[in-house]
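quick one before i forget lol
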Amino acid sequence: MEPLGLLTICVSALISVFLLLSLLALVMRLILALFPVPVQVTDSAIVAAIVSAAQRLYPGTTVTKVEEVK
């Protein structure tokens, strides 16, 4: 196989993979637009577990606010 043919194959494979991944990203964005992720309410069991863990590590502490950092 001549070197120019190998280069052509590699470039075409790279472009096809890039296009395929771009298409999949667009499909994922479309799916997320059609079916948005519901807002999760903080579960009381999760809050209780966080409070329990904090009190076990640092006795006498009080947890006043629990929020998710994105």
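fyi The CA atoms of residues 13 and 39 lie 40 Å apart.
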